[in-house]
Amino acid sequence: MSTKEIDAVSVDEFDPNRALGLWHILATNLNMWKDRLTPTITYSIHDRLPDGRVRLDDLVEYYTRRPFSGFVPTSVKGIDTQNETKAGRFQWQGNGVLKLIRSDFGFIFVDDETPSNEPYQWVATMFGSTLFTSCGIDLMTRTRQPPTHVLNRFVQLCREHPILKSKSANMFYTKEKNEDQIYFIRDLQTD
Question: Is the pTM of this model over 0.90?
C-alpha cells in the first residue's frame, strides 16, 4: 500500500490517548498471523514532541510454534510517530536490530460510540509493507468478542470504500488456539 493510499483512508479525528493499552488483533489479511496465535498490540506513550505530536511505544506479542517446544511467546517492539498533518497517520520504526525498518500506517476505522473521555473499544489500521511483512489491514478490539454490529460496520466500510475494497480482500480471524482452519471475515458476517 502506498503512502498516498494510507493518507487517503486514515481518519482525520484521532486521539492517541484513547488508543493506549492492550488490543487484540481480531481480523487481518497479514499472512504471518495464519500460523501464529493470539496476536496483540499494546500502545503506551513514548513521548510528546515539541510540536504536540505523540510518539507511541508499540509492543506486538504473539505465540509462534517452535520445533520440539510447541508455542512460545514472541514480541516485536517499535515506536509510532504521529504525522504532522493528519492525527490518524503514523510511521512505525522498529527497536533494536529492527531500528532500520519503517512502515507507514494509519487508523482507518475508529470507535465512534464510546464517550470521548473513555478509551476506544475498536479500531482498524492499514499499513505498508516492510522487508519482512506484506502490507495489510488489522481490525483490533479490546476483547476478542466485539459486538456483531461493529464487525458488520467494518465489513461494510471495506466493501464500499474504493481503496479498501481491494486492500481488505481475504481478511481472516486470528486464532486463539492451535487450529487448522482459517475463518475469513467475510464468511462470518450477518447482514
Answer: no
